[in-house]
Amino acid sequence: MPDAIDQERVAEHQRGVCLFGYPFFSEKLLIPGIDPSRFLALIGNDQDGFKALPVMYTHGNQGNSNSKNLRKMIPLPLEETRSGTVSEHASRSRERSNGCADHVYRSNEEENWYVMMDNELADVDDQGWMYSWSFKAKHWKGKYGFVRKRVWVRLPSATPDLIRLGDLGSRHRVEKKATEVTGDSSSEDNWWDATDDLIMLLSQLRNCKLDRERFQFIDGVFHNLSKDDLVKLSTEPILSRVLGTFQFETSKEKFRNELKARISS
Fold first, then answer.
1. Could you give the residue ranges of the DSSP H alpha helices within the chain?
2. Domain span holding position 246
3. Which of 75, 102, 118, 160 is 20 to 30 A from 148, comparing alpha carbons?
4. pTM here?
C-alpha cells in the first residue's frame, strides 16, 4: 500500500505493571487529565503523518449515528444483526459521520481490525503492545513499564506485517515452548526479571491513594500469578516491602491472610 493512502489506525492505551513476567494492565487504571484516553484515532498516512483525535463510542446502541463517532473507529467487534451482517442503518451512519464519499460499506471480512506487529518505533510483545514508563516517552520497548500502547489498523485485506487478534496467542505459545526446550534463560536473568517486577509492583502500589485501590490491583495480580510466584511474594524481603505500601495495620493483616489463602488453595 502506498504511503500516501489514508489509513484507519487507532492507538490503544493502558496503564499497569509487569509482575513476575505477567503484564497486569487495564484501561481502568488510566489517570484522567494526565493519560490519553483508551482509544485515539490516528487520522492521516505515513507520508504526511498522523493526527490523534479522541474516539467517541457507545456500546450497545446499534446504528448509533453520533457525528463524533469517527465511524466507530475502535478495534472491537462491530454490532451485528442475527444473520451475522452489519446492519444497513449502522453502515449508513458510519459513512455519514466520516463525511467521505469514497468510504463505502464493506463486507465483514474487510471490516476486521488488525494489530500492527511490525512497528518501526519499538519492539512489541506477542500481543502487539509496546511498553514505557510514561506515555510522553520517546523510547518504547517490548516489555516492562508502567504504560503500554499498541496500534490497530483496518485494511481491506491482511498484509504480512499484520496479524489477526484471534491468532496472536499461537505464536507466543510456540516461542515460549522453544525457550523452555533450549533453556536460554539463565538464573541471573531470572533474578534481574524478579527485581524489575518487584520495583514496578511497589511503584504501582505506592501510586494508589487508598488501601482499597491497592486491594483492587492486588486482586488482579493474585488471579494471574502461579502458586510458585505467590510463594515468592510471601518471602522476605519482598513481603515486608509490599506490606510497607499499605496505610493501616488491618490492611496489612488482610493482605497476609489473602496471600496465605491463595497459596494454600
1. 88-98, 168-182, 187-207, 211-224, 227-233, 238-243, 249-264
2. 208-264
3. 160
4. 0.42
